[in-house]
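TEACHING EXERCISE
Course module: macromolecular assemblies
Task: Read the component lines below, then compare them to the predicted structure of the full complex.
Student: A.B.
Group: 4
Components provided:
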Amino acid sequence: MSKYYLNYLDELEAEAIYILREVYAQFQNPVILFSGGKDSILVTHLAKKAFYPSKIPFALMHVDTGHNFPETIAFRDKLIEDLDARLIVGSVQESIDKGRVAEEKGKNATRNALQITTLLDAIEDNKVDCAIGGGRRDEEKARAKERFFSHRDDFGQWDPKNQRPELWNILNGKYFEGEHFRAFPISNWTEMDVWNYIQRENIQIPSLYFAHEREVVKRQGSWIPNSEYLKLEENEEIVTKKIRFRTLGDITITGGIESEADTVEKIAKEVAAMRETERGNRSDDKRSETAMEDRKKEGYF
Amino acid sequence: MHIDKNQLLRFTTAGSVDDGKSTLIGRLLFDSKSIFEDQMKAVENSSKKKGHEGVDLAMFTDGLRDEREQGITIDVAYRYFTTPKRKFIIADTPGHIQYTRNMVTGASTANAAIILIDARHGVIEQTKRHAFIASLLQIPHIIVCINKMDLVEHSEETYNKIVSQFEEFSSKLIIKDIRYIPISALYGDNVVNRSKNMDWYQGSPLLHELETIHIGSDINKIDARLPVQTVLRPQREGFIDYRGYAGRVSSGIFRPGDQITVLPSGFTSTIKSINLHEKEVEEAFAPMSVAVTLEDDIDISRGDMIVKTNNQPQTSQDIDAMICWLNTDPARPRAKYTIMHTSNEQKALIKEVLYKIDINTYDRITDDKDFKMNDIGRVKIRTTKPLMADEYRDNRDTGSFVLIDDNTNETVAAGMII
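Instructor-supplied answer key:
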């Protein structure tokens, strides 16, 4: 075999770097949407590579639901310091205090949907014209339809049936005043690719991804972490389990799985043998069959 | 698993539900164990709701609410699966004539195309359309799957008849590599596992073909081209004078010491170093994203192209191209569009329509020259400043472009330079 080929991880990396450089070249004020999860950490890592030896030319934007894992916030702050980057925080609590949104009621209330307003306000207030996300097409069926450069109208909405065709490597980031774009440089990565790459590059990730002892409660088949926001229901009981998280979101909706995997290598092995998708433990996706599509149309990540 | 050596193969599947396209993709995902239990459960539930018996494999590929409700594919959807040998990206596109533009989109990045034929019907208009698009977009490898063999009693004679039908009409097209496989997606014959019902077929099952197609030689290693996306000027300690020209190699091989010319200015210099992030490398080839530094300080910016001095693309304001119209607004004669070609952006107008092509019969149409959505044809384009271009058949990257309507900012046409 010829030596002039890239293995699939190098090819995915080259593609992501190409996209990040297009974002920088085509937009005035792009930011990375940073959740503290592995996908946004990966995007940040790729941005570091894309512009080396320059600093990363993007601010990191965090939409803070106020219901965080403390570990996530500590990780975020350290990363910002290491990168010497700017942090923009959009606060859901502030959106509630200002009356922009109202807290959900009922037993399964979360702040998940409220993030949309906070996100769109933060994009508008900071004059962001492109928000770079860590969304992947393998995650969810609506995300499988996403473009690398995804247009949002002046209400921040996505129109999945009327998307710009994206051919070859040509990315059209043109927009009118008030509109913006989302860019997804790791669209073509799967969960397995992400872990293989994290292992290869030795990328630091929050401790929550590794197996650890935690107080949890069983809800809808997932282990939901105990926190000050958790409202116990009848028949529910807090137990201590050795768990880890496959995705990180709001502490109220992110379910863990029982696991012994305490290194990246063990996680990669475990993921390879998994029989459920990573979002299978996200109660935000379980609300209906098209829960993600509906939220994305409104402006969700 | 030697994941560090595994390659990526992108392939496209065009067809409608009737061909069994979705069933085939469902089968590939299912038999390669790429479907997870929660996805399986969701599909089982939907299948039940719709009154289907058992699991409808086709439902794994439906995405949007409307698609699930109407049982059709509206847009290009991307699917992923991995085997111990390769990682695969499927661009799943609808096959109806009104979705030609989606087929073109899916085909634009594919290394291989799967064309499905229903064994009961043989070659039909839709087959010709798919073959034409695969040929137009220069997909290097085409795998013709003759599906539903179970419904023709696994007949070798039927299979041979369809193969010769296909060969007859496709002789008019430029296709580098065609293979044929008799399959039954519904029962899994010759998809992942060899069929027990068709002993007469000596070739490999589909997945084995996908895993072993040689794609290394599809890359152009001759014409060195680096379109500059952006210039890296860190202006920080240790890198005060650093100027890196960042871009993704389109084709060819660059090495430090190479004599290069920057287009369109024509300035020449020598490559000092090639940086792959924090590493320095001895060679850069497609599709690597690199930053190149030069021995001389010359003015280079986005839209310029670095090429080897002894091998240069054509530099011209007039180009001949095949275009596919992608938008519901038809082409406006002599109107100005923005043309995006590599990292270069200019204004362009369609000077002349030479002909359109009937993609079912391959006939040239010369009496109707209005480009409407899904139309394909040959045009002459004039740009405000020169493009640095190669022919599409030599170089997908520097031979392709899109047109953008400045009134809507939408991508309205895809072009391949002749």
